[in-house]
Amino acid sequence: MRKPRSTLTSTDWIQAAFRALAADGPNAIRAEAIARDLKVSKGSFYWHFKDVPALKQQMLTHWQDKATEAIISYVEAASGPPREKLKRLVAVSTGTDTSAYGGVQVEAAIRDWARYDEAARAVLKSVDQRRIAYVEGLFSDCGYEPPDCRSNALALYGGLIGLEALSVHSPLDRHAELAKLLKALLAPE
């Protein structure tokens, strides 16, 4: 259910822009089309954003905050050993309802956007580095040697990205599959 017109926030616009991105790619991030989706006038857009490039920048900042920093903060807020933090990370990474943002395909859409847009590419690179470094640190906290920490972090992160891509066209339990991968990575040698 959409909020009444008078209560639209910049987050409502950002979510609608992500839905447009996920459905139709970066060229769909247009004020008029998003306003139509939200059933409001284009003037409402300009109440929140100077222009479409400003919206795009806020989308990227929002994504970086919500899909990376907020998740890391959530995982870190839990007490417990690093193995439990890795399990919690898998759970939150695969269990978050992303329908307000366009569903599971939004990350793939951001990656596609980054192929053509320098600002998106820079934020994606930063997000990937931050996420991988965080997971690498958790494996280090589990007692793995640096090369294994890096390999495990890349395998787990790559698994998440791959499962997201696969789940767009075929139903699968991303959480169960990523949890199995984590279990294999944590298995003693």
Summarize the structure in words.
- The chain has helices at 10-24, 31-38, 42-48, 52-77, 82-95, 106-114, 118-141, 146-167, 174-186.
- It is mostly helical and 189 residues long.
- The chain is elongated and about 60 Å long.
- The model is unreliable at 1-5 (pLDDT under 50).
- Radius of gyration from CA coordinates: 18 Å
Averaged pLDDT: 93
Number of strands: 0
Quaternary structure: single chain
Distance between the termini: 50 Å
- How big a fraction of the residues is strand? under 5%
Low-confidence stretches: 1-5
Q: Tell me the helix content.
A: over 70%
Largest sheet: none
Global outline: elongated
User: What class would the helix/strand composition place it in?
Assistant: mainly alpha
Topology order in helix (H) and strand (E) letters: HHHHHHHHH
Q: Given the structure, what is the number of helices?
A: 9
Task: Give a nutshell description of this structure.
The chain has helices at 10-24, 31-38, 42-48, 52-77, 82-95, 106-114, 118-141, 146-167, 174-186.
